[in-house]
Every structure is written in C-alpha cells, then in structure tokens.
Amino acid sequence: MVNVYIGLGSNLDQPKDHIRLALEDLKKLPQSQLVLASRLYLSKPVGPQDQDDFINAVALLTTTLEPLALLDKLQAIEQQHQRVRERHWGPRTLDLDILLFGNQVIEQPRLKVPHVQMDQRDFVIGPLLEICPQLVLPNGTPLQHLLQQCPIDGLICVDA
Ligand code: ROI
Fold first, then answer.
1. I need a surface site. Which of 78, 82, 92, 94 has the fewest CB within 10 A?
2. What is the pLDDT of residues 69-79, one digit of tens each?
3. What is the DSSP string of the chain?
4. 120 Cα to the center of ligand 1, angstroms
C-alpha cells in the first residue's frame, strides 16, 4: 500500500458538484481506499485570468495500483464528467492530478510525479496542509516551508 495524494480541480458547470462527485468516484476505485479529503477551496485561476475561479481539493488514497494504472482510472473518471478542456490552461470540468505517489519520482511521457509546479500552487499547498500538515516532499522539503514562497491567504474555504 502506498499513500497517494490526488489534486482535484474544476471551474465549469457547477464545479462544487463535480468535485464532490469525483470524491465519491475515488471511493470506488479498485485496490484503493480514500483515507482523507480536504474541504473545498475557491481559488483564483493560475494561467489566463479570463475564466471563472476554480474549486480545488486534495484527497489522500492508499492503493496497490501501479502509477499508470491509477492514472488510467483517474482519466476514466475525468471522461465520465464529460471533461472538456477548451484551451491550454483554460476552463475545465474536472482535473484529477496525481500530486505525490509515495516518495516516488516518476518521469514518464504520460506522468510526472511530483506534479509539475505543485510547490508553487496555493490551491495544492493549502488543501494538502489541511489534511497532512507534516508532509515532506520526496526532495526533502517540508510542505510547511513552501508557505514562504507560496502564501495561501488567497484561498477561500467554501465548505459549510
Ligand atoms: N488554477 C486554479 N486556481 N486551480 C486549478 O485547479 C487550475 N488548474 C489548471 C490551471 C489552468 C493551470 N489553473 C488552475 O490546470
């Protein structure tokens, strides 16, 4: 069993519903258990600003799936949500990203882990801190240290 952190994001078609349903979908993944999910956060778009704010969350799974098998399952969930991606770094109905896969560093054409630029994204760091404040990245950097370069004050928690 390995601990895997998944980032969830949506800014189209009732984004909160997409994130909540996606968390239910994660509960049904084979060979896996959803251990923890963060609350939902509203975040300013990274990239083009002429799009709606995002809803973001992070989940912790344990799994015995291999990284690419998990990626296939996550992409299938994205497709079930009629994933549309209108343009690069543009609006999307659902993004499910493997942020961390244990302490593995993966450099494959389909999958890079830790997820690219996750250490510079408030919408990843904030929810991760909520569910795992003591987390240390594979390169040895404690998550808490990232706050110096990436403040999270812009995130708004939107859960009741
Ligand atoms: N911006 C925010 N705030 N949240 C996201 O999930 C997100 N995802 C993306 C881009 C377009 C880079 N910007 C984002 O893929």
1. 82
2. 999 999 999 99
3. -EEEEEEEEE-SSSHHHHHHHHHHHHHT-TTEEEEEE---EEEPPSS-SSSPPEEEEEEEEEE-S-HHHHHHHHHHHHHHTT--B-STT--BS-EEEEEEETT--EE-SS-EESPTTGGG-HHHHHHHHHH-TT-B-TTS-BGGGGGGTS--TT-EE---
4. 12
